[in-house]
Amino acid sequence: MKNFFKLLSLPNYAKFCRAALITSVVCAGIEKPAQAQGAETILTIPDEFLSSDFVGNGNFNAIIFGNFQSNSGDVEGRLAVAGDFNLTTGGYSVGTGGQGVNAPDDTDNFVINGAFNNTGVGNWGLRGNMIYNTNPSGTTLPSLIVTGTSIKGGVLDHIRFSDNELIDYYRTLSGKLDLLPNTGTLLFDGYHQYTLKGTSLGLNVFDITLPENMSSDEIKVEIPAGSSAIINILNTSLTISSGSMKMNGADQVNGRVLFNFPNANFISLSHFKWLGNFLAPKASLNGNGGSINGQSIIGGHFDQKGGFEFHNFYFEENSISLPVTLVKFAAAKEGKAVNLSWTTSTESNSSHFDIEHSVNGKVWNRIGTVSSNGESKEKIDYTFTDASPFRENLYRLKMVDLDGSFAYSSMQSVTMDIENAISIFPNPVTDKIRFANRADITSVTINDLAGRQVYSANQVQPDGIDCHALKSGMYVVTMHRSNGSSFSQKVLVAK
């Protein structure tokens, strides 16, 4: 069976190694096997942020890091609020599914780190336990639906919100997902439909920017049946008034679609049904009618109006799966080369590893392929050597399954000594562009910033490239290596 990757490459390794992520990333020096998280999903609060007497896991339907203001609606799953919970008019409920599924009967399902304010509403139903900090006079606590559950006040940091490490955790996760290479396309019909198309049988990744104000528009996701998607919406703000979402192939019920908002500081949804998980760790959210159907992480305040609802489908194991359990990936320079090594603890239907190289994290080139074992439940070690590195090098593994699905590892970086690495000098240049360690360079092209090619050569002369024919200005020099990879660097010609 395939497993989630759950190692995170961050300075505070031990803290983040416990989190389940979609991409495989590596904790240096810690060879901890990655495992599926059972009832947890990728947006689950890691255990280290839960108090020692917390009942249940960190799998919440909605996590609000600011204040929660509502005049009507519900949360069908479990709800955690870092600030105050303020309910003024209308009915409410937490933990009971109408369109989704019920929250567990006996876990801590409603956690408020600030004040619980329930004025003008009266009694309403809660499934599971409630934990809150303060309860101002004049407010009414909800009724417990399940016998044996409880409500407890005077508790601070039942979920550890106060030191901001949890919101930093989600913002880091959002940034990691934003770095995944785009594999899909966005098509606009010129009128009201935005279609996201992906072809990977495994994970599809989209980087998109939508109009800041949308009305009566349709967002459509088309990916192969059984595959999954990370959709990075790059807007700093987004307002949607009515419209719809559609999924072809994507299965939001099993948690296979995640919408990530790495830059957004404000989102407004009015009478709009959002399908899939919702990660907005920097944004405040206004919801007026409609719903979010999936787990939600909201980094700011939440204003709930007009019966807006959070629907939950994700108390089953998240079904995004990848081909290999990776427990280590490392890159180290040795003389003039870079040695890569990695270890898997299990493999299922695995085909091979593509070794990819970049100098800037944006453009990647395959520099080699290593066959995998295919099926294994034991640790297997792999190695690969890059004999011709540049000065700055980034490496990652593309782990490919037999059915064509794939996943990427984390990036590993290696800086070579200048005398051992391919590099361009001087910069700025007044006479000739010269190259260090040019033996591995098979061809060179130079383009101006408009993309026009102004120079091309199939070999590099020992004394470099004469720049006297070039006008003063900025150019892009691209060097091609014998292994098929390339490297581009901006050079200023100053005469």
TrEMBL record:
UniProt xrefs under NCBIfam families: choice_anch_A, Por_Secre_tail
Pfam families per UniProt: pAdhesive_15 (PF20597), Por_Secre_tail (PF18962)
Coiled coil feature spans: none
Species this protein is from: Dyadobacter fermentans (strain ATCC 700827 / DSM 18053 / CIP 107007 / KCTC 52180 / NS114)
InterPro entries cross-referenced by the UniProt entry: Choice_anch_A (IPR026588), Ig-like_fold (IPR013783), Secre_tail (IPR026444)
Source taxon at top rank: Bacteria
Domain Choice-of-anchor A as annotated: residue spans: 56-309
Name by which UniProt lists this protein: Uncharacterized protein
Chain ranges of the Secretion system C-terminal sorting domain: 424-493
